[in-house]
Write a structure and sequence with these properties.
The protein is an alpha/beta fold and about 200 residues long. It has helices at about 1-30, 45-60, 75-85, 95-100, 105-120, 135-140, 145-155, 170-175, and strands spanning about 35-40, 65-70, 90, 130, 160-165, 180. Bound molecules: adenosine-5'-triphosphate and magnesium ion.
């Protein structure tokens, strides 16, 4: 019994120490500004995370916009829901780039979508923006990295931007405030399971 009590006390003391450290960090975080978030890596969950943040923002009555740089030929669950809630969407005209494989038309389509993104980045009324799969456009050279970095730097102070996609460029990671890398541990597709409506798209 006495032994149990000591364990409890030790637990309590440890938790109090953790709480003090967390409280100290919360008190120290005083800056208020919009964020650039990058979600990259080879695992599943990047777009899901981006759309989760948009859903969170919509729940707080924030104004949101989504650009999708790569779209499949299938229907889009997130768009079906979020457009009804007033989220503006801009979906790149071509399908998967690795399906079209036409550099000229892909560049044109990416540039058209990027020009809408630039407009949003200059619009103070938009609180949270998702650039889904933008990293590929930079990798392929369809969208200029310097232009992206410049537009992000000049955006309204309280505006947040989420960028998703594999292999985010080093400079994009540098300018971001929060960067997460989703690691692939395993994926159902690798064992022959089809992409599932409502879970994968
Ligand atoms: P999600 O949209 O599910 O969050 P994601 O944005 O992290 O996925 P993408 O590379 O954009 O990943 O791929 C989109 C599609 O590919 C989704 O249907 C997803 O389930 C699937 N996918 C993601 N990661 C993997 C993987 N490591 N292996 C196989 N398929 C994957
Ligand atoms: Mg994705």
């Amino acid at each position: 019994m006495a032994d149990e009590q000591t364990k409890d006390e030790r637990y309590k003391a440890r938790q109090q120490k953790v709480k003090a450290q967390v409280d100290e960090k919360i008190a120290a975080a005083q800056e208020e500004k919009g964020l650039v978030l990058v979600v990259t890596g080879n695992g599943k969950g990047k777009s899901t995370s981006g759309f989760g943040t948009i859903a969170r923002a919509v729940g707080h009555e924030k104004t949101c916009a989504v650009a999708q740089f790569i779209k499949g030929t299938w229907e889009n669950g997130e768009r079906n829901l979020l457009e009804k809630l007033g989220v503006e969407f801009c979906v790149m005209a071509t399908g998967f780039t690795w399906e079209t494989q036409n550099k000229e038309s892909d560049t044109k389509a990416a540039q058209e979508t990027w020009s809408t993104c630039k407009k949003w980045l200059a619009d103070e009324s938009i609180d949270v923006i998702l650039f889904d799969e933008l990293t590929y456009m930079i990798t392929y050279g369809y969208v200029d990295l310097d232009e992206v970095i410049d537009a992000l730097a000049k955006r309204p102070k309280m505006q947040s931007v989420i960028i998703t996609g594999r292999a985010a460029h080093r400079r994009l990671i540098e300018v971001a405030d929060t960067v997460s890398e989703v690691k692939n541990v395993k994926h159902a597709f690798e064992s022959g399971v089809k992409a599932l409506k409502g879970v994968d798209w």
